[in-house]
Amino acid sequence: MVKRSAKASKKSQPGRLRIVAGNWRSRLLDIADVPGLRPTSERVRETLFNWLTPRIGGARCLDLFAGTGALGLEALSRGASGVVFVESSARAAAALRKNVETLGATDALISEADAFDYLRRTTDGPFDIVFLDPPFAADSLDELCRLLAEGSLLAKGARVYVEEDRGSPSVTLPEGWRVLKTKTAGNVRYSLLEAAADD
Prior knowledge:
Blueprint: E1 16-18, E2 28-30, H1 42-56, E3 60-64, H2 70-77, E4 82-86, H3 90-103, E5 108-111, H4 115-121, E6 127-132, H5 141-150, E7 154-165, E8 178-185, E9 188-194
Parallel strand pairs: 3-4, 3-6, 4-5, 6-7
Antiparallel strand pairs: 1-2, 7-9, 8-9
């Protein structure tokens, strides 16, 4: 979740992340002092998890480019059965481990790794929900979606959340994928995708 700049208004205190809802509602957690590291805004998280309400309970989730862990921690707070957090920054991963420990989040697994390397080698799947929030400048969503689609990492009917720069072309979807929801907030375009049609 490292972005070029803040993309949407946030209610969380500077340097702090607030869980919006669920078991840890309103808990405040520290954010690592890493340049460009920003949590997905509370407004966007609230909308996203409203979209995911029918599916979040008991879901296995993957939070790629986890950064602050805002999306994965929100998922756990709302009843996800487990989340794998993937973050390449050692400092961000250390802060995330501390927050996981503070919350007593026993169903969290943190992998300090490059997201692309992780997708190419992992056997952690299948995942019901994947959060994709890479650095906007990296222009990597097309390749990330391709790796997810080809790697047998997704459960049937999995949901994939993507955040991208509002001004960039929309992500090119793998065959059989479709956009279920999309909105904008400030300079961010965020969408919920279905990775494969349900039977």
